[in-house]
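Hi R.,

Here's the input for the pyroglutamic acid complex you asked about:
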Amino acid sequence: MRKILLSAFEPFGGETVNPAKEALLRLEDEGIYKLFLPVEYARAGELLISEIDRVRPDAVIMTGQAGGRDAVTPERRAVNLMNAAAPDSAGRLCAGEKILEGGADELFATLCPEALAEAIASAGVPARVSESAGTFVCNDVFYRALSHLKGTPVQADFIHLPWCDEQAARHPGQFSLPVEDMVRALEAVIRLVSAS
Ligand code: PCA
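And here is the predicted structure with pyroglutamic acid in place:
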């Protein structure tokens, strides 16, 4: 049985829930390790890396909210950049800083995002590959994890989730999904990754 570590983020930016956290909380614990991260540059990545070193998983699947998207979106790459108009949950504002000085400009997911999107779509949940994880904390965690795992056989990807239905009222006209669909999407990913 392959060991899978899954991470999600706490709510941020005035939201009371984060769809990624809600989905993870509802996932069966059997055979997986769950970790909830603060929306803080550097610190979230450091916490994930110490959990990776403790658990020694075969695969790492990070998840987070990307409000406004119209599907569940496995990411292709992380970029070496922290840049956002809003501060993180510790009040840190980043405008064009590198994540790792001297690091590669971009690092690619080591789980195939197309295969993940296909598994999610087969579970009946809208899915497509995303070419950008943004330049906020999700990208930061993703970049740090890929950099830490470089040269190891541990596979990793980041999956962004749209608003969940509980959040829809605050974002009229925007796409949302029931948390149950997100759980089904992650279950499909777990099945695929445990089998491969
Ligand atoms: N989404 C944010 C950070 C935490 C989260 O769930 C992002 O996309 O960077």
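One thing worth noting: Residues 133 and 139 are 5 Å apart (CA to CA).

Cheers,
M.
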